[in-house]
Amino acid sequence: KMNIIVVKDSLAGGRKASELFYSAYASGARVFGLATGSTPVTTYQYLVKSKIDFSNCISINLDEYVGLKPTNEQSYRYYMEKNLFEFKPFKQSYLPQGDAADPAKEVERYDRVIADNPIDLQLLGIGRNGHIGFNEPGSSFDLTTHKVALTPSTIEANARFFEDEKDVPKYAYSMGIGSIMKSKSIILEAFGEDKANAIYDMVEGDVTEQCPASILQKHPNVTVIVDEAAATRLK
Ligand code: F6R
To answer: What domains lie within the chain, and their CATH numbers?
Structure first.
């Protein structure tokens, strides 16, 4: 069963997650799967302030926009540099390379990175529709790393960050659900009332590809950290 921890707010959640990172590290974890977005920001803030030393660790991120250079301020590489890596460098930090010349080769390379460095602890956020990584409802539970077409609503939501509409990414690289399920342990964080339905479906709903995160019910070591607002529909 999923281990569910309800906290007051995203600060308390980030603190809790950073403590779980620390205890995983203390018991030997050296490969950390990381996420971007608004949810893990407080976790990274606490990790930056903590004594944890990642210089002998490896990080592997979930996803990246296709077409963006690592220096692009909208890239997930840039987000990771600014939120974590500049303060807590890892021995090696992997993300899919947005500007890779050959997408098929890039997807293969990333699967090899994950196979060569089995993830000890994977940090996840969740979308309002239950997505994890860029695995939207309907994606197969068996997928490994793949190139995903962004939905029109995601493209539209991202447009405000770009000067020119044609620069808005139309695709992303994402670990698949199959890759995510291979990590030894998982922490999923969700904060705010707009995540309450997704959390309910993930924890208490059927395991179905219509709610990608519901597959986590079948993973042996998942900790869900939710604030009170995201937990409102849980029994
Ligand atoms: C980010 C990622 C996404 C987000 C999700 C929630 O690397 O893979 O699945 O975790 O979209 O985003 P936020 O945290 O911005 O609500």
So the answer is: 3-225 (3.40.50.1360)
